[in-house]
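call fold(seq) -> tokens
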Amino acid sequence: MKNSKYYPWMVVGLLWVVALLNYMDRQMLATMRPSMEADIPELVSGENFGRLMAIFLWIYALMSPVSGLIADKLNRKWLIVGSLFVWSAVTYAMGYATGYNEVYWLRALMGVSEALYIPAGLSLIADYHQQKSRSLAIGIHMTGLYVGSALGGFGATIAAAYSWHTTFHYFGLIGVVYALVLVFFLYEKKAPEKKMVVTDLDKVKEKSSVFKGLGLLFTNISFWIILFFFATISLPGWATKNWLPTLFSDNLGISMEQAGPLATITISMSSLLGVIFGGILSDKWVVKNIKGRVYTSAIGLSLTIPALLLIGFGNSLFHIVSAALCFGIGYGMFDANNMPILCQFVSSKQRATAYGILNMTGVGCGALVTSILGKYADEGTLGSGFAMMAGVVLAALLVQIIFLRPQVNDYIDV
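ret:
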């Protein structure tokens, strides 16, 4: 099966489900807070709940570069299977939690295990889809994250029908079973190896290869440019995840029960369209122009600029929803091309590490902007905070177009 010409797409399908579970399991807690408050009174406090959400983000951010280093050195199949099994077991165990501290430390453990997946999963897909289908393959995979995020909101629905304990148990068991499925159907993509005699000197060199790999990354100017615009777009990316429902509710004068689903579904579905369109366009464009992936990503960034302004200052349902749709499509086009652009400047030996560093920076920026926008929300100027991010994205767009100049579609370290 692994030698079939269709197997690279089967890998995308297999990992799409993992991506869905990754985001769904992390999002459920936010939606099930009201159901859990009766059994865990500490969750009534907004400060306590904020600490619970923050511990996941900070550990996830700090673990991301470490997970990238691990993925570049170990078998990615078993890393993916292991991380899925652990975070699913943690989800299952949350159903037995009886106190705040238990949920807090389980949430922290989930941050460690979930961080191990994305660098390994994306680098494995990038290796299976090396040329004409890379952006589309990664774009399809990213739709799993969006669908998982949207489905996480239904945790509250299931919890209302049964109980929050049962909800955690069901979703945890699904992940554990699917980890066992991957054991039989997911395979590592191995580069051809040359036979050689291993000497003590070779072993010493292998031990220092981690530091050498990091050195190659941090002396690569193009990597710093990618890191800059990835961090920049992470600001509005996380802002829409955490604050868009509140903004919809305030600007449109509707209840949070209406604003929440409207914001989540609008962004998730439009982002899904964006990654598919951006993946197809990028894969076709790069064949004719080596900067095709960069240009596709830049088009996506450019769409988010007027969208942020209209999200911030719009006061009608048509304006704000249209702006959110525009932002989602643009963000999706950008999201589908991050790893493919990285592949044009970083060899396969350091790609998981590189994406881990990107992920850490992006999540860190997300935690920062979430806190800053909280102050804007308290002052009643949340829309202005969204609009101001348009200027930051414009600066990143100019840096990307002017300074990012790929020479090849797939960088190979010689």
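The mean pLDDT is 86.
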